[in-house]
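Now read the record:
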Amino acid sequence: MFITTSYLMPHQPLSRIYRNLNYEIHYMMSFIGGCLEIVSFMFLYKALIGYMTSNMIFGIAALAQGGMDFESYYHIAIILIWMLLAALHPLLANRYQARLTSPWQGYAIAMSINCLLLLAFMLLGAALMRHGQLGDKPTVAVMPLVTLGLVFMYIQNFVIKHGGTRQPTATSVVTSVYVLMMSRLSSLFAGQRTRRERVVLFHEGMHYLLVIGHFFIGALITALLSRQMGFYSLLPALLALLLFTLRIWVRHGRYRALADPGRV
């Protein structure tokens, strides 16, 4: 599902920062990932719904305390839902093969679905908060909201991983991204390297820095807005995703027009 061929666009006016639209997709997804992760951390009992390692640690710690209530299994349930999504994805992809007419259509479809998921996540979260369903401890009532967020993050991470950049990351920001950034930048000053090798290392290091930076900015903006707006602090992320998705659909249409002039 959403199988997309990598397609690197030529340099754009913002090429000094965003080398092409594929990289812009990567950074936009990182920004939105930061928005959603900070909300899930603050309002969904530290459920970082894009990071299964943290949920495993929380789950193990809860189980080790000997509790038998829902709180003890909450983070384990998140991991199980994520594993289910990972299992269903290839089955659905094999059953419903998408006939993409441009390299951009897969991204456009995935982002369009995520627009709906993010809207539903925001509205449902606000409704649960308004009716007092988000108490001190997680309950079964929050699982539909968590599931929406998990599906959103799964699609987003898939888009990032297959986004056509030369240095994809599997998730928005993970430990490996920090390590890769520092190793690439520090390698600039290590050993005998040609100018071309240094330029490549610099661009790779800056790419990982931009991934982290966009995630940080998204999380910071949303955290500040959440003080007054709660789940509606995701409105900037939703607007950004809607506008960017529209841009991808426009690029898809232009690609089809160039590939088949007879349609125009």
Summary: The mean pLDDT is 82.
